[in-house]
TrEMBL record:
<protein>
    <submittedName>
        <fullName>AsnC family transcriptional regulator</fullName>
    </submittedName>
</protein>
<dbReference type="InterPro" id="IPR036390">
    <property type="entry name" value="WH_DNA-bd_sf"/>
</dbReference>
<dbReference type="InterPro" id="IPR036388">
    <property type="entry name" value="WH-like_DNA-bd_sf"/>
</dbReference>
<keyword id="KW-0238">DNA-binding</keyword>
<dbReference type="InterPro" id="IPR000944">
    <property type="entry name" value="Tscrpt_reg_Rrf2"/>
</dbReference>
<dbReference type="Pfam" id="PF02082">
    <property type="entry name" value="Rrf2"/>
</dbReference>
């Protein structure tokens, strides 16, 4: 089973929370941690790479916290995952340096896994945090309609 690590999952959750509050000023780490069920200490570790990658801005002081560096529609899931995890590689033979693989000349793996990886990377790059907000709103509306019998 291939899994995105907790860095990637929690990074996306943290940026999603900031996207929900975009334009409302900085959001405290304690708020993000509580809202998204992430340890504050772990969240602080994730914010450094997100800040260095230009995804978030940090503000110090009593009213400090974090905010997105640009609108949610301009930040993709891959921006966040790349910032906290680095480039994704499903297998050794799907990475950019796969030329060093001794089985390259007679293995079907690189053809399969590089295409799967390309699709994954393209999907994450095309999915903005504004898209995620809208998906969640649609999901919520469907659940409410189901509960109300509609």
């Amino acid at each position: 089973m291939i899994k995105v690590s907790s860095k990637g999952r929690y990074g996306v959750k943290a940026v999603y929370e900031l996207a929900l509050h975009y334009g409302q000023g900085p959001v405290a780490v304690s708020w993000i941690a509580k809202s998204q069920n992430i340890s504050e200490q772990y969240l602080e570790q994730l914010m450094g790479p997100l800040k260095r990658a230009g995804v978030v801005l940090g503000m110090r002081g009593a009213q400090g916290g974090y905010t997105l560096s640009k609108p949610p529609s301009e930040i993709s899931v891959s921006d966040v995952v790349d910032a906290v995890e680095g480039p994704i590689s499903l297998t050794d033979c799907s990475s950019e340096d796969a030329q060093g693989c001794p089985d390259m000349d007679h293995c079907v793996g690189p053809d399969v896994w590089s295409r799967v990886q390309e699709a994954l990377v393209e999907t994450m790059a095309s999915m903005s945090f504004q898209d995620l907000i809208e998906l969640q709103r649609d999901h919520f509306k469907r659940n409410i309609a189901t509960l109300l019998g509609g």
